[in-house]
Design a protein that fits this description.
5% of the residues lie in helices and 47% in strands. By secondary structure, the chain is mostly beta strands. Strands 2, 4, 5, 6, 9, 10 and 11 form a 7-stranded mixed β-sheet that branches.
Length: 128
């Protein structure tokens, strides 16, 4: 299972680090992805890391502000979020799926691909 935590209330321009802790499986061959869902909007892919080959991807609009990383010893994936804006306010989820490396780039943003594990979500609120 996955557990996402680290959300909270932050002022615009501030930073937060989210954590996604895994238990019951190992990261090898999995893609771990952060999604977010704002009120009234669809769930969107934020960033992912493929443990098959170490590749990371980001939503184009978030490049340069968000960074995904991992600590394999702690079975945890992190999302460092900087220069936060009010439009970053959302519930952030992490998900895990075994996606063949050749398909990660084309599928990682689709939440329907992730059928194995979802975290419970953590709320990030950015005040302007």
């Amino acid at each position: 299972q996955l557990q996402a935590f680290g959300g909270g209330l932050v002022e615009a321009g501030g930073s937060l680090r989210l954590s996604c802790a895994a238990s019951g499986f190992i990261f090898d061959h999995y893609t771990i992805t952060w999604f977010r869902q704002a009120p009234g909007k669809e769930r969107e892919g934020v960033s992912c890391i493929s443990f098959s080959d170490g590749t990371t991807y980001y939503a184009d609009s978030l490049k340069g502000r968000f960074t995904i990383s991992s600590d394999n010893a702690k079975h945890t994936v992190y999302l460092e979020m900087n220069s936060l804006r009010s439009e970053d306010t959302a519930v952030y989820y992490c998900a895990a799926e075994r996606i063949p490396p050749t398909f990660v780039q084309s599928t990682w943003t689709n939440p329907r691909v992730y059928t194995n594990f979802w975290g419970q979500g953590t709320l990030v609120t950015v005040s302007s």
